[in-house]
Amino acid sequence: xxxxxxxxxxxxxxxxxxxxxxxxxxxxxxxxxxxxxxLLSTLGGNATSGNSINDRGWVAGxxxxxxEQVTHAVLWRGNxxxxxxxxxxxxTNSAVLWPVKNIRGIVTGIAQTDEPDPLNEIWSCGFFxxxxxxxxxxxxxxxxxxGIMTRLPPFAGGTHSFATGTNNWGQTVGWAxxxxxxxxxTAPQVLQFRAAMWGPGKHQLRELPPLPGDGVSSATAINxxxxxxxxxxxxxxxxGGLSAKSNVLWENGQPQDIGDFGGIAWNTPMAINQRxxxxxxxxxxxxxxxxxxxxxxxxTKGQPIKRLDLLxxxxxxxxxxxxxxxxxxxxxxxxxSCNSAGGDCRAVIWQNGVPSDLNLLxxxxxxxLLTAANDIDNLGRITGVASxxxxxxxxxxxxxxxxx
Length: 404
Prior knowledge:
By secondary structure, the protein is mostly beta strands. The protein has helices at residues 2-15, 18-21, 25-29, 312-315, and strands at 33-39, 44-53, 59-65, 71-77, 80-85, 94-95, 107-116, 137-145, 148-152, 161-166, 172-181, 191-198, 205-208, 216-222, 228-233, 246-251, 254-257, 268-272, 278-283, 294-299, 306-307, 321-327, 333-338, 345-351, 354-357, 369-376, 382-388, 391-401.
C-alpha cells in the first residue's frame, strides 16, 4: 500500500497545480499541459494496442506477430515486454481488452485453449481475434500473476468465459456461459451468459443477475469498494448490440439501471473509479435501433447520465461517434471521438467535461496519429492506440507542465 499512497501524493501535487485547476477557456489555454509520447514495442506484427494502465505504470493489451494470424496478450513494464501467452499453445490467441486497474500484479483478459468448442459458437472472444483463428476453440477468461496464467471457469454447463478487470482485493469480473439454451441467442451463439465474479478465493464464482425481464448480463469493471458495472439485455450474438440494452451498476450484488440516451442497444459502461464514477458509451437515440451510433457518457451517483461532447470537428456533424473508455480518481476521462462514418477518429481527454484532441497536446516531433485513448492512471498517464506508417501501435503518453 506504500506504493499506492506515494502515487496518490504525487497525483495530488500534479492535480493541484494551475494546469488542472482552472475552468475558464482563457485559463485552459494558458495551462500548457503537454505529453511525452512513447510508442511501445510489438511482437513483430502490424496490430498492437494498449488497453490498460495501472498506477505502477504497467500497460497491458495485445499484439500480433509478423506473418501470423494470431494475437497475444502483452504486458509492458518500463522497457520490459512480456508475452503472456495463451491457454492453448501455438496458433491460439489471447488479449487484455479492458482497464484492469489493480496494483497487485494481476492481469486479466481472455485466452483460447486447445479444446474444441462443442457448439462452434463465435462467443464474445471471437470478435477480438484475427478472423482466421478466432473460432473453433474454447475461450476462457484468465488471471495472470507472477508468470502464471490461470483459467477462469464458466458456470456449470457453459463452454466459454470472458474476464475484464480485477480489483486490489483479488476479485475479477466478466461474464460466463451457463447451460441454458436461450431462444433469444442469435446463431451461432447458443448458450445464455451472466455477469460473473471470480474470487477472491481460488474456487469462488458468483453470478451477478441481469435486470428484471432480461436474460443475460455482463460485467465490465470493478472498483475496490466492490461496485461492479456492466450491461443487461438479451442474448443476441454475445457482443454488445441488444445484449447491451441497459447500463448497469451492481452494489451488494443487486443491479441498478443507471440510465442511457434512449437507445435500445450498445449501452456499455467501460470503467469505474473508486468514487463510483462510471464512464462508457451509449447509443445516441432509439431511432438508430441496433446500429452502432455511440456517444460518450459520465454517470455520477445521484445525477442523471451526462453526455460528453465530441471534438468540435465531429460534433458539428451532429452524427459523430464518441466513447469514454477510462477514468481516474481526478475525473480525468479518456476515450475516442470520431466523425459520423468513423473514418476520422482521435484520442481524446476530457477535463471538466471539455474534450481535447490528445494529438494537439503531444510534444513537437510526433508523427503518429493517436486514434484512441483507452485508459488513464492516477498520475495522468494515458495508454491507447496510434497509427504509424500503416500500423496500429500501442502508446503511453506521460503528462508534464511545459516550462517546468
